[in-house]
Specification:
mainly beta, Immunoglobulin-like, 6-stranded antiparallel β-sheet, 4-stranded antiparallel β-sheet, 13 strands, globular, disordered N terminus
């Protein structure tokens, strides 16, 4: 089957997957990250998923999130000693690799708060893989000081 766009409902159909449009645009296209300052060995990263027009996504979606030593790099060689947990918004669905790689679900406003805990001196990045494009979007550096 050739790729085609169904103009009536915004659904893109390919021979590999079907993407249902939201308000005429494909689900989420980019991410806003806000990295907080370290407090008591915890750095909070607030994540807001956005549509193709840059508007906040107003639905709950699942995302693959992983911790790395460089922006967009491989999974961290050594995990933060406290791993990552949901802060205010979202839900952890599964842990893929202990303290390094997860599946999270945003709240109904496309928001996710992740608290990363490290008691030593280190730096990490939080990365989200876009399931539609395979692109990796990365936070700014998370800095921990002992």
């Amino acid at each position: 089957m050739a790729d085609r766009q169904d103009a009536k409902d915004g659904t893109l159909r390919t021979n590999k997957f079907t993407v249902k449009g939201i308000g005429g645009t494909v689900a989420w296209q980019n991410i806003g990250f806000t990295v907080g300052a370290e407090s008591n060995n915890v750095v909070n990263v607030a994540i807001q998923l956005k549509d193709g027009d840059g508007n906040n996504l107003l639905v709950s979606v699942s995302v693959h999130v992983y911790i790395s030593d460089t922006a967009g790099g491989a999974v961290a060689a050594t995990a933060p000693d406290g791993g990552a947990a949901v802060g205010t918004n979202g839900t952890k669905i599964d842990t893929i690799t202990a303290d390094k790689s997860y599946i999270f679900k945003t709240d109904s406003n496309g928001q996710l708060d992740i608290d990363v805990t490290e008691s030593g001196t280190d730096t990490f990045y939080l990365n989200v893989i876009n399931p539609l494009t395979g692109e990796i979007e990365s936070s700014t550096v998370l800095t921990f000081t002992a």
